[in-house]
Amino acid sequence: MFRDALETIVSGILAFAIGYLLWPPFPGQFYWGAVSDVVGGFVTLLVIIGLCFSFGFIVRNTTPITSVNFAIGSLLAYLVGMYLIAATMEPDSPVHWLVYGLMLAGTIFGHAPSEILDAAIDGFVRMLDLSSQR
């Protein structure tokens, strides 16, 4: 029980840190603008999500943090980050919810690709299995 709580807290701190480092919420600290001017916004977002995926993959291979605890901690970090953005700034649009959400998804998928793919394939096979519905 204590290990799960500790892994969740550490995961939340790691996810919050990578979200802050990759996409600082303050206008003066945003450094992807130059990259976006050269390659476009969509490619820049793909690069950021790829970095998040890589971060999740590195955490998976260097720490004993389980996928469930990592996902819960990352989700909590996302919620705390969105609350802090809403409380300290007045965003013009809700785009930060989307961008940080995509970063969260990339990080979690990087940490648990086999578990996510297994669950998706199992669900797809169960959906196609019509023989048990007699």
TrEMBL record:
Domain of life of the source: Archaea
Residue ranges of the TM segments: 5-26, 38-59, 66-85, 97-117
Keywords: Membrane, Transmembrane, Transmembrane helix
Protein name: Uncharacterized protein
